[in-house]
Structure formats: structure tokens, C-alpha cells
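R.M. (postdoc): so does anyone remember the format we settled on? I'll just put the C-alpha cells first.
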């Protein structure tokens, strides 16, 4: 996953600082504050995050704990270094569930 809205600034060789959209510095806006765990969390650093797709199994409901921004997209591992969002089967920019909690 790459998300320019939550890209982390990283110091590279020769003291060059670059934004890396595959290393996410998530702030309170990305965290579900109505969940007890989210209410106690202000910032989350997720290097090379993935996302959950699909729907929960019968009898379970999904509660998203952390999500990406509208600017995010899935990327292939080979594209990670470039921050290119081609992703599997041409996924489009949209928010994704980065963590979720199954409940009954």
C-alpha cells in the first residue's frame, strides 16, 4: 500500500530527505477513536503496510480500527521502492482497512 497523505519523511544517503508513501505515519484522523484501543492511540507507524479486502465470514461483522486516506492505493512489492500505485488488477485510489477487528 502507498498513501501520500500519510507518507513518512525518511533521510536517505547524502542527507537527502524524501517522502516515502509506503511507510505510513498515521495520525488520529486514520484511527477509529470510538474503539477503546483507538481512543488510547494518537499515532501509528506502519512500514510497508498491507490492507484487508473482502467481507467478513457469515455471523461476523467488521470494525475498522485504522484506515488509509482517499489517496491510497495498493502497490506490488516490486513497485514499493517507487511508490507507484499500479496494484493488483489496477486497483484505484480509495481508503483501505489497515487493521480490523472481527466481532459477533
Amino acid at each position: 500500500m502507498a498513501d501520500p497523505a500519510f507518507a513518512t519523511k525518511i533521510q536517505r544517503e547524502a542527507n537527502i530527505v524524501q517522502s516515502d508513501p509506503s511507510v505510513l505515519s498515521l495520525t488520529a484522523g486514520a484511527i477509529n477513536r470510538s474503539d477503546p484501543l483507538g481512543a488510547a492511540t494518537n499515532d501509528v507507524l506502519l512500514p510497508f503496510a498491507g490492507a484487508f479486502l473482502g467481507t467478513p465470514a457469515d455471523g461476523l461483522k467488521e470494525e475498522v480500527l485504522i484506515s488509509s486516506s482517499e489517496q491510497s492505493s495498493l502497490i506490488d512489492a516490486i513497485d514499493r521502492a517507487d511508490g507507484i500505485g499500479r496494484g493488483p488488477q489496477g486497483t484505484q485510489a480509495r481508503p483501505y482497512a489497515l487493521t480490523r477487528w472481527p466481532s459477533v
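R.M.: ...and that's the designed sequence above, right after the C-alpha cells. Also worth knowing: The beta strands are 7-11, 17-26, 44-47, 61-67, 97-103. The first strand starts at residue 7 and ends at 11.
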